[in-house]
Design brief:
Largest sheet: 10 strands, mixed
CATH superfamily: Spore Coat Polysaccharide Biosynthesis Protein SpsA, Chain A
Strand content: 25-35%
Structural class: alpha/beta
Number of helices: 6
Distance between the termini: 19 Å
Shape: globular
Length: about 240
């Protein structure tokens, strides 16, 4: 699944007239970049959630013949956030042993095949994380199993009764994950609109959510206008390296 429904308010003025998924970088859109990466690893079916200027994404995919793969669109009249958006399309995944879910606006040099191989059959999720500076972190034990979440700016912790909190290490989430469809059973009590982190916190006490830390990892969240020049160079570098 590709998460592409957000309003992209940090990318104004481009998103005043376009969806962020169609932001051009290094000669291609963010959406094309992600679709081609998935296609390269043998993916033949993708679900994309849409909301902001959704008709432009429909037209773009039609103009490009869906890039030669089967693409399903899930239009959200009201934004459901990442977790709600995923749960809304659960029927696409219930018969799969596992599936990928990616934010459309994350550029990285990650090898998606290596990520898939790292996913363990008994784990409910494998999350791409890294050691980088941010305000919000996922908390993992020494076995790299998720135990909670924290916002270091507000000193908030979830759940608020985390065991052995001083022994946990903080890792930043990268908006990429491999999921088991079993995770949908933990979403039913969260309402219509919730984040993936909400979903993970709802099941991390009883299920294994494992950290995946790529080696020589580079990533960029294409989320702010002031970083677009840097993102353009990052995308160019990825093209040159064939990522």
């Amino acid at each position: 699944m590709l998460f592409a429904a957000g309003n992209g308010t940090r990318l104004k003025p481009f998103t005043d007239l376009h969806p962020k998924a169609l932001l051009p970088l290094a000669g291609q859109t963010l959406l094309k970049y992600q679709i081609l990466r998935l296609k390269e690893i043998g993916c033949d079916e993708i679900v994309i959630n849409t909301h902001h200027f959704a008709n432009q994404i429909v037209d773009y995919l039609q103009q490009n013949n869906n890039f030669g793969i089967n693409i399903n669109l899930s239009y959200e009249k009201e934004l459901l956030n990442t977790g709600g958006g995923l749960y809304n399309v659960k029927d696409f995944f219930v018969d799969s042993p596992f599936f990928l879910a990616l934010n459309v606006d994350i550029l990285s040099n990650i090898n998606l095949n290596d990520l898939l191989k790292a996913h363990k059959q008994d784990d409910i999720a494998t999350l791409v994380v890294s050691q980088r500076d941010t305000q919000r972190y996922l908390l993992f034990n020494d076995e790299n199993i998720m135990r909670g979440w924290t916002n270091i700016k507000t000193n908030e912790f979830r759940p608020n009764n985390i065991e052995n909190i001083n022994s946990l290490h903080k890792l930043a989430f990268s908006g990429m994950q491999v999921l088991s469809p079993k995770i949908f059973q933990y979403a039913a009590d969260l309402g219509d609109t919730f984040s993936l982190v909400d979903l993970y916190l709802n099941c991390c006490k009883t299920e294994n959510i494992r950290a995946y830390i790529p080696t020589n990892y580079q990533m960029m969240d294409v989320g702010k206008t002031e970083f677009l020049a840097q993102a353009e160079q990052f995308a160019e570098n990825l093209k040159e390296k064939g990522s």
